Q: What sequence folds into this?
């Protein structure tokens, strides 16, 4: 039997559909690999062996009966712990939701199940998706499979680490300001942040509602495209869901990219980028030229404000979104002397320091007398950032930047300094604020042997372009690096 | 002592008559077992999202257009943030800046003076859950989320009312309009029409508004008057005593007959309103607005004017009959059916007859429950019954007993009359036969009559009617008796 851990989602699905592999043996192999390796990586917060084996057996039965199988039939899938899974714990890596079991599946989880995907478990993350290193998980941090002394990135660190180490065929993460792209970059895998509204947020526990999007993390672009095809599409339960029909993303793999105009942001790597990242980015431009792409220099004049805008809007929305965690209806409750005291004790004990910091920031930004100066102004600048992209896309078809200014850093390196941690997101924040799609694909290794990511952005609902160029690039550089301990 | 003018503005929360809640598909049925009409959305479970109920938007728009408001093509839902267990998300989705509707008016009349009240805004918002204090072990509070998320519209008036009677009149007229539109069931007991009042006083002639107090818990028309009257007197006492009014929220305590302080302005919460990122701006097309405007029904005020002009009603009658949309419909259907049956009647006469009969007889047995009214008989039966009176087949007095039998049996009035042989005998031969017998048997009275004691006529009529078991047409009986008495030697 082939080693399922090394196989792409599309290969696995084909092997299971043809009968070469059974879904149950693939699931068993994945569970065994998790048992052997996740003690170190700690990508999973909860592994559902029983549920996964049952789902796999169902796929095998369906195949035996000659039923038509879904595009993910039998493929082991991990789900970031901020997406509701019926009957499975969903904690957002927070103490406040310890033991919480949702009564319903998130839209994306329904879609994965309907496509035959086998849900293996729930993945580690920064608490409520707030963080860039996974160090904010209340249940212990996930580690980078390339170097366990380093962060897998965040907030979808568990998802990226599990994908990189073959602890799932592919995973679903969520991205608010870079939370699938940055960890994908640190772990040498691919992640797509779809257009805001392309994927329903129903059942995704909100961090910042106007920014949150679920996105796939996979070991190659074709797999990510397949996953996106499964989760994208209109959902009447999400009022911000887009109605436009879903494109055939996978069909973009292998298409020619000659003549494609690639925008390079002027001075993109001037600010705080590691030399290894600067070098990889320069090499990438040459490789794209070699593929026949035309490089165009573009400007995003308001980009420098993205960090400030993001750290007003996201915490403001979060302060309101997280108000419901009060110990009254579900999750942790610490009884106090009266109602107010119970609220204070519950939230005091349930939330970690970064979550509290952002709730306070957001509460302040929305307060009477500060609203206009902070929240309203941030919204106006957000509009300008969005307009920058619209203008840039009149001159290019896609736009590239590094995904993050550095490769994976060591634990503790930035955890004492929130600002330097926040700087990890400077490239991923602008597309999030603009609501446009972006992909992170590996573009090389640092001298330390750590992966570096390339971010490609496209105009609204043009995920097809990301797949086309991402796949062409990945093929051109023959990316097949795996973490040292992979096999 | 200075003279003071009362200034009142009202905020009405009217529950919309949608089948489901404002942001989810749960039923809004009243009185269901606690926490049975709930789902992830109205329980605010993590990951759930709101989706606006189009029926609620349409109803609020209907109300707004009837009150002359401008409907905004793009309005915005906002979050009002505060912690309380009756709020599943610890924020309420409401409209703050950019509400759906603005700038309407409602004219009220009290004792001959009219007052134009500006409707500042009508916006949509979700209701909170219901806290049941002292439940269970006695110490605890239980929360019933059945009501959580119910669609409300808040109707905010300007500070344009000048007395508690004007306030009461405004509320009555507003409630009547909302019920006529079918957007609110007007049920004060079940809390589907609730009111808060902002009350202040100022010296007569002063332009600047005085410091206001917001009165809560005044959920009946009677309480509104009592609470406002109490509050005005309280404020006058404070100010005339040299004191100043503190801006605060006060609650009406019915047992003590007082308004009591709840919280002061300093304690007022900062709700940190901001546009709800889960809900895109609410878009209403100009076509939808015009379609809703075109579909507005005749409003109570126009109905009253028409009843006065066309159906000969008094203002008092018109007011009663337009007070509930079902009763107005019933009244008009009865008039139309009566005109169809008794084609010699004028509209005016038919209107009067139906108005009198419905008010004095039918409404006594009517049971109103929100927008539904259980009426004892159909409008067709009312018309049939009044047509029988009109043709002289039964007397007005008999009509009442026939009504009772129709109510009891469900049979048509004509059938009841036929079965009980109540039809008045208009056959002069039969009456004459009976009359002759009566006169023959009462010769001394005939003599008295001839001698000028004409008041014995009543006795003869009574005897004839008795002989005919009450079925004789009284007018004919009279005529026949007079004829026979004048003929007799
Ligand atoms: Zn519900």
A:
């Amino acid at each position: 039997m082939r080693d399922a851990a090394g196989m792409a989602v599309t290969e696995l699905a084909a092997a299971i559909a043809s009968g070469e592999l059974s879904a149950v043996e693939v699931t068993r192999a994945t569970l065994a690999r998790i048992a052997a390796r996740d003690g170190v990586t700690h990508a999973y917060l909860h592994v559902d062996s029983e549920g996964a084996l049952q789902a796999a057996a169902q796929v095998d039965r369906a195949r035996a009966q000659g039923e038509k199988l879904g595009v993910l039939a039998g493929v082991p899938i991990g789900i970031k712990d901020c997406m509701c899974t019926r009957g499975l714990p969903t904690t957002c890596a927070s103490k406040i939701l310890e033991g919480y079991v949702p009564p319903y599946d998130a839209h994306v989880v329904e879609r994965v199940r309907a496509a035959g995907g086998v849900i293996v478990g729930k993945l580690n993350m920064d608490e409520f998706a707030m963080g860039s290193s996974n160090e904010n998980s209340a249940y212990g941090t996930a580690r980078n499979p390339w170097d366990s002394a380093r962060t897998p990135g965040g907030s979808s660190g568990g998802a990226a680490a599990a994908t990189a180490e073959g602890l799932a065929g592919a995973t679903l993460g969520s991205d608010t300001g870079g939370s699938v792209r940055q960890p994908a970059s640190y772990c040498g895998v691919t992640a797509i942040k779809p257009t805001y509204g392309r994927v329903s947020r129903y059942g995704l526990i909100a961090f910042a509602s106007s920014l949150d999007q679920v996105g796939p993390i996979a070991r190659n672009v074709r797999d990510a495209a397949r996953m996106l095809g499964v989760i994208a599409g209109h959902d009447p339960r999400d009022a911000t869901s887009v109605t436009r029909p879903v494109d055939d993303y996978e069909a973009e793999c292998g298409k020619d990219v000659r003549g494609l105009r690639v925008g390079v942001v002027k001075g993109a790597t001037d600010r705080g980028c590691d030399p290894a990242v600067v070098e990889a980015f320069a090499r990438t431009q040459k490789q794209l030229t070699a593929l026949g792409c035309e490089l165009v220099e573009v400007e995003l004049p308001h980009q420098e404000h993205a960090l400030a805008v993001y750290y007003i809007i996201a915490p403001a929305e979060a302060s309101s979104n997280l108000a419901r965690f009060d110990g009254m209806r579900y999750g942790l409750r610490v009884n106090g002397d009266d109602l107010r005291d119970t609220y204070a004790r519950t939230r005091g004990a349930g939330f970690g320091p970064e979550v509290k910091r952002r709730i306070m920031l957001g509460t302040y930004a929305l307060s009477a007398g500060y609203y206009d100066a902070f929240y309203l102004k941030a919204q106006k600048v957000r509009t300008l950032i969005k307009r920058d992209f619209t203008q840039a896309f009149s001159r290019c078809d896609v736009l590239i930047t590094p995904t993050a200014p550095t490769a994976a850093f060591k634990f503790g390196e930035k955890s004492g300094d929130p600002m330097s941690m926040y700087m990890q997101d400077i490239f991923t924040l602008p597309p999030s604020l603009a609501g446009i799609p972006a992909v992170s694909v590996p573009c090389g290794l640092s001298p330390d042997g750590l992966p570096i990511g390339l971010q490609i952005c496209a105009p609204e609902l043009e995920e097809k372009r990301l797949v086309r160029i991402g796949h062409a690039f990945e093929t051109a550089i023959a990316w097949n690096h795996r973490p040292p301990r992979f096999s | 002592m200075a003279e003071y003018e009362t200034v009142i503005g009202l905020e009405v929360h009217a529950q919309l008559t949608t089948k489901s809640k404002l942001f989810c598909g749960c039923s809004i049925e009243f009185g269901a077992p606690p926490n049975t009409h709930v789902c992830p959305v109205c329980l605010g479970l993590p990951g759930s999202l709101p989706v606006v109920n189009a029926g609620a938007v349409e109803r609020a728009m209907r109300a707004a257009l009837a009150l002359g408001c401008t409907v905004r093509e793009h309005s915005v839902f906002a979050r009002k943030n505060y912690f309380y267990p009756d709020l599943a998300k610890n924020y309420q989705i409401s409209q703050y800046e950019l509400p759906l509707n603005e700038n309407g008016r409602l004219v009220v009349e009290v004792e001959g003076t009219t007052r134009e009240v500006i409707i500042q805004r009508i916006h949509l918002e979700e209701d909170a859950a219901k806290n049941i204090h002292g439940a269970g072990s006695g110490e605890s509070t239980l929360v019933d989320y059945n009501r959580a998320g119910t669609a409300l519209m808040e109707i905010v008036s300007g500070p344009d009312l000048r007395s508690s009677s004007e306030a009461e009149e405004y509320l009555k007229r507003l409630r009547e309009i909302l019920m006529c539109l079918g957007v609110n069931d007007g049920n004060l007991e079940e809390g589907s029409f609730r009111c808060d009042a902002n009350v202040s006083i100022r010296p007569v002639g002063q332009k600047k508004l005085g410091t206001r107090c917001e009165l809560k818990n005044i959920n009946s028309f009677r309480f509104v008057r009592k609470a406002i009257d109490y509050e005005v007197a309280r404020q006058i006492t404070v100010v005339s005593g040299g004191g100043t009014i503190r801006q605060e929220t006060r609650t009406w305590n019915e047992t003590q007959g007082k308004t009591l302080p709840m919280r002061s302005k300093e304690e007022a919460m900062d709700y940190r309103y901001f546009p709800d990122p889960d809900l895109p701006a609410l878009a209403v097309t100009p076509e939808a607005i015009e379609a809703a405007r075109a579909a507005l029904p005749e409003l109570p005020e126009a109905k009253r004017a028409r009843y006065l002009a066309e159906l000969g009603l008094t203002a008092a009658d018109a007011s009663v009959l337009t007070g509930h949309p079902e009763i107005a419909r019933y009244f008009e259907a009865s008039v139309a059916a009566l005109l169809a049956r008794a084609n010699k009647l004028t509209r005016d006469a038919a209107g009067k007859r139906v108005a009198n009969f419905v008010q004095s007889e039918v409404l006594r047995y009517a049971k109103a429950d929100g927008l539904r009214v259980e009426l004892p008989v159909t409008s067709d039966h009312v018309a049939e019954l009044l047509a029988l009176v009109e043709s002289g087949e039964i007397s007005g007095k008999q009509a009442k007993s026939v009504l009772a039998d129709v109510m009891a049996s469900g049979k048509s009035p004509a059938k009841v009359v036929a079965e009980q042989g109540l039809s008045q005998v208009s056959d002069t031969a039969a009456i004459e036969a009976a009359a002759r017998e009566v006169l023959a048997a009462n010769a001394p009275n005939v003599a008295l009559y001839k001698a000028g004691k004409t008041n014995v006529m009543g006795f003869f009529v009574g005897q004839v009617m008795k002989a005919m078991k009450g079925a004789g047409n009284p007018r004919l009986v009279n005529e026949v008796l007079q004829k026979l008495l004048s003929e007799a030697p």
Q: What stands out?
A: Chain A has a mean pLDDT of 96. The interface with chain B takes residues 83-84, 90, 92, 97, 100, 102-104, 106, 201-206, 208-210, 236-240, 316-317, 319-320, 323-326, 328-330, 339, 343, 363, 366-368, 371, 375 of chain A (CB under 8 Å). Residues B 21, 24, 26, 38-39, 41-42, 149 surround zinc ion (CB under 6 Å).
